[in-house]
Amino acid sequence: MYRERTSTVPGAVLWTRTAGAGVARVLPDGCIDLIWGEDTGLFAAGPDTTAHLSGSPPGTRYAGLRFAPGVGPAVFGLPAHELRDRRVPLDELWPGAETRRLTARVAAAADPGSALESLVLARDVRRAAPAWGPGIAASLAAGARVGAVADATGLSARQLHRRCLDAFGYGPKTLARILRLQRALGLARRGHSFADVAARAGYADQAHLARDVRALAGVSLGELL
Prior knowledge:
The chain is of the alpha+beta class and 225 residues long. Helix content is 45%, strand content 18%.
């Protein structure tokens, strides 16, 4: 069972999940999450480059704050590329004694998700996220070319790549590819044919869509749906 809503923490979505049988496939989305699990405690889930497979005993509860692309580094206080494809216990990023206290507070709460929101807001960990980050992510999500984004921001290709590594965990071409996958999946879920999905999402053709989805998600688009 999975649910999500807009969080009271700016730039975040709050989600909760109760594990079922089998393995959960988490697709790359350019986001960084702060997650509490009954079996894991608090940890940071960095931006993934391919699907992350997660298996837990059925009934295990999780709650997480998913920070929009470019927001997470301001929360955790380090460049996004240092968390890329990693799951890092929070006590490696925040002071250990504080993390143990916060973990106990979330675990004891009737609503772990709301407790997560409260601890982030109370700790005031959010530093100012770079103003250009959301704009770059939005442009790439809408299908803008990397060169056009660099021109619009007044950056060279090398400067844009470096800034994207810090903000998103990977360069603009990889981020664009991941956001295109998310765009394609949204279209497919709304009932568009795969050929139409490929055209609307910006793939060269349906075969290109199929190759890219399998490379990033590990399965075909049909299996994802």
